[in-house]
Q: What sequence folds into this?
DNA sequence: TATTGTTATACTCTATAACTATA
DNA sequence: TATAGTTATAGAGTATAACAATA
């Protein structure tokens, strides 16, 4: 990929800036998760499982925005690595009850720390107040997207 | 794609918010350019050509971040639609001198207006000061990414 | 019949490498 | 030899549709 680009003609377009900044953040964070053999979305899955366990695969798919058919492979990776425990639902044997394993909980803490370090590094050009304001504005937009 | 997701566990991660907002903005803007039979990046290409014509294909590739091999197809689309004029460079016949055609200039004005409308709609949850601040913060990050 | 999870597959996007024509 | 542009192709990512097991 062409990493360095110069396109001042696009700097007036908020949408282009959004995409450029988002892609750069995603790509550098990918390197971090790849060092653990994982995809950035695995970090999101671990966060959601931690917050809501036990959770079914379909529920996790809905919460993370990952398509159910794609969720299978992602979850398999977590399972094979021993980061989650999959147990068939007792009341409904079609579903899984997914929980973090001890190893999953440990890796999640490592990833949380590395994600925070990545955030600090990536947002370093902004001072603390600006970083907080950026987060607040993005959260406001995200929440308005979530509204029905 | 799963359009609606609920993942409060991810709301603390600036990177996830960035990606979510960026993707939503890109997808909705794609609908606008698709109505003209174009890709969002075509709008970026037209903006850069307008600002810097005549420009070579490789120069445009560097400025827009589109890979040279991918640039071919994108440029072909603009050419077939009669939106640009491609002329072989006089001093170096390997290169093209790419300029906007009159039709290209007209469509660019339409797209500028539609992009501005899209921006206003998308950022509507923020007040004017917040919209300006978001742009400023993203620009600051972008410019720091561009630095060597 | 409907739903959870799975598989197979197709489609998009993009990058890599090999090629041509010019320099 | 090197560079601008082109083509063919391979890889990653993701969605669609059909299926098995269970409800």
A:
């Amino acid at each position: 990929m062409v990493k360095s680009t110069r396109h001042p003609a696009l700097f007036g377009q908020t949408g282009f800036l959004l995409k450029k900044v988002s892609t750069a953040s995603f790509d550098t964070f990918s390197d971090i998760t790849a060092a653990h053999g994982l995809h950035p979305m695995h970090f999101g899955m671990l966060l959601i499982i931690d917050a809501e366990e036990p959770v079914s695969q379909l529920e996790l798919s809905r919460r993370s925005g990952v398509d159910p058919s794609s969720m299978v492979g992602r979850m398999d990776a977590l399972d094979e690595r021993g980061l989650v425990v999959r147990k068939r639902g007792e009341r409904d044997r079609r579903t899984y009850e997914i929980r973090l394993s001890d190893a999953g909980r440990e890796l999640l803490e490592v990833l949380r720390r590395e994600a925070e370090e990545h955030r600090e590094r990536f947002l370093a050009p902004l001072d603390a107040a600006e970083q907080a304001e950026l987060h607040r504005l993005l959260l406001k937009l995200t929440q308005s997207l979530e509204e029905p």
Observations:
- The helical segments of chain A are 14-34, 40-52, 57-64, 68-80, 102-122, 128-146.
- Chain A touches chain B through 62 residues (CB under 8 Å).
- The longest strand of chain A covers residues 84-88.
- Chain A is about 65% helix and 5% strand.
